[in-house]
Amino acid sequence: MGALVDYIQFVLVPQVFNGLTIGVAVILIALGLTIIFGLLDVFNMAHGEFYALGAYLGVTLAGRGVSFWLLLLLVPLLLVPVGILVDRALIQRVFHRKERHMLTMLLTFGLAGVMEDVFKAIYGANIIKPATPLTGGIDFLGNYFPTYRVFLLAVGALTIAGVWLVVNKTSFGAMVRAAAFDRQMAASLGVPVRRVYSATFAFGVALAALAGVLLAPLYSVFPTMGKDFILLAFTAVIVGGFGSVRGVVLGGLLLTQIQSLASLYVSPVWGDPIVFGIMVLVLFVRPQGIFGGKLGHA
Amino acid sequence: MLRIEALHAHYGLSHVLQGVSLEVHPGEVVGLFGRNGVGKTTVMKSVAGWVTPSSGSVKFGGVELGGKPSDVICRMGIGFVPEDRRIFPGFTTEENLKLGFLQCPGRTWAEDRLALERAYQRFPRLKERRRQMGVTLSGGEQQMLAMARVLVGAPKLILIDEPTEGLAPMIVEEIFNTIDALRRDGVPILLVEQKVFRALDVCDRFYALERGQVIARGDASKTDDREALRQAIAV
Predict the structure, then answer these.
(1) In A, which residues are within 8 Å of B93 by CB distance?
(2) What is the pLDDT of residues B96-124, one digit of tens each?
(3) Which residue does chain A place closest to B89, by CA atoms?
């Protein structure tokens, strides 16, 4: 009996907690991805690079003496005009073409490559490790939880709740959902569709940037950092269901727990194959995702 | 207040509107009739900004609408109730209704509330179903919702495209009674309808279209004009 309690306390709980941190990280990145997809029907291949841009901007501003807590607000806000610009200059330019899916994918893919190189040119290829803003840990029932990871979970939960509220309970969210379903009818009810598109793209980009600032102290900052989580984020979006906030949260949590428990019970090298195997399975059985639908079912 | 002059429109190679001219005056319900595919809906869509005319002019209160985006046209005071109702999934009845407020950002919460109450008075069934998902309503109720959604925004002119299509006879009567009530309230309407002679009872004037052109026009209450309409569209 004692052995079982010990096992749960010292093996299972830390593993689940670790999976939870990664889960929140993935969800924070996937939220913007799914919102942009749900409304604009655009796969933002540069989403991981906006996440990296947020992290680099945070590093730069922190170097100028801006406090970490201020960065959490400042960096996402600074990325809003960037998002609007990218939407106006790249996405809207090809939005009405028939080959929109392919063109937006290629455009954002190209943008991702350019951004990665710019990071390399400015900051070099080395890994930057920002100081952890909260040190120490919390003892809880004999387990040790690093304070910053606990903080990350709390901020992650608040952000998820905030995004859900914005999408489902505000008039901006109503405009976004209405425009996602039926652009023409939404416009005829007075929704300024173009501006809503830009604002939504910027909102998604700002969320990625927030994730960049939040996760930098844990996972470090380097030019290709965007690639690390984006694959899992895309998988969470696919498994959870495109355009669904609830889907992305449950998909993200489910996949990262499976990954983390698979590496415990099967083998660490089997974590990724199992997760991506699930994605392939979902695509076969239920291509719209487990909670699939557009933003309205968020 | 609405003045369409020599309007031409194309869908690809097909020349759908070939010089349509018509007018809607304040306080007037105007019927637009004709067989399927003669361009009635295209006229509506040209006014609402869903179709960009190839030439001609659409003026509302003296302002040219051609080329303006739909949301600007909506905020100028034109409400559009399209053929297939276009109720948003994922929104309750009341949430669908509230989308009609979006165009009036200056309005207070109390004014919005009042507009909502008025809509519920006009359509008591929508009040009963206000928490139900809009897309789960019956066809007739969805039509009422689509009309109410436009009405809460206090439009100066409403375009209603085939409101009774596919509805049960009792509901059809209800929809016509609603349009009649709107007429008595002085709301100008441009109405496209297949049930021509029932529709004439709620119209002040009418136009008949054939192959993208106006082939008859007249006063809905005059027997001669009604007879001319009957011959023009051969019903």
Answers:
(1) none
(2) 999 998 877 778 889 999 999 999 999 99
(3) A296
* Banded model confidence at residue A296, pLDDT cuts 50, 70, 90: very low
Pick from A228, A249, A247: which is nearest to A292 by CA? A247
Residue-number span of the structural domain to which A142 is assigned: 11-126+137-297
Q: How far apart are CA A106 and CA A43, in angstroms?
A: 10
Tally of structural domains, chain A: 1
In a domain, A131, yes or no: no
Tokens of A96: 């009405």
Residue A145 lies in a domain: yes
pTM of the model: 0.88
Residue A109 lies in a domain: yes
The answer to whether residue A196 is domain-embedded is yes
| Interface touch B69/A181, C-beta < 8 Å | no
pLDDT digits (tens, 9 = 90+) for B33-67: 999 889 999 999 999 999 999 999 999 999 999 88
Determine the distance in angstroms separating the CA of A15 from the nearest CA of chain B, rounded to an integer. 37
Q: Are A237 and A33 in contact (CB under 8 A)?
A: yes
Question: Which domain CATH number covers A19?
Answer: 1.10.3470
For B188-201, b/e burial (b = at least 16 CB within 10 A) is bbbbbbebbeebbe
Q: Report chain B residues touching chain A, CB-CB < 8 A.
A: 48-50, 69-71, 73-75, 79-80, 82, 86, 88-91, 95, 98-104, 149-150, 153
pLDDT by residue (tens digit) across B216-231? 999 999 999 999 998 8
